[in-house]
Amino acid sequence: MSPTRAEQAEKTRQAILDTARRLFVEHGFDATSLQLIADTMGVTKANVYYYFRTKIEILEALLDVSIAAFDAMLDTAETIRGKRARMEYLVDGFVDQVIANRAIAPLSHTDPGLRRHDRIRRTLDDQAERGLHLLFGDQPTADEQAAYFMANDLGPAIRRLTHLGDDELRETLKRLCLRLLRV
Amino acid sequence: MSPTRAEQAEKTRQAILDTARRLFVEHGFDATSLQLIADTMGVTKANVYYYFRTKIEILEALLDVSIAAFDAMLDTAETIRGKRARMEYLVDGFVDQVIANRAIAPLSHTDPGLRRHDRIRRTLDDQAERGLHLLFGDQPTADEQAAYFMANDLGPAIRRLTHLGDDELRETLKRLCLRLLRV
DNA sequence: GTCTATAAACGGATAGAC
DNA sequence: GTCTATCCGTTTATAGAC
Question: For strand D, which nucleotides have at least one atom less than 7 Å from a protein CB?
Answer without folding.
Answer: 1-5, 10-16
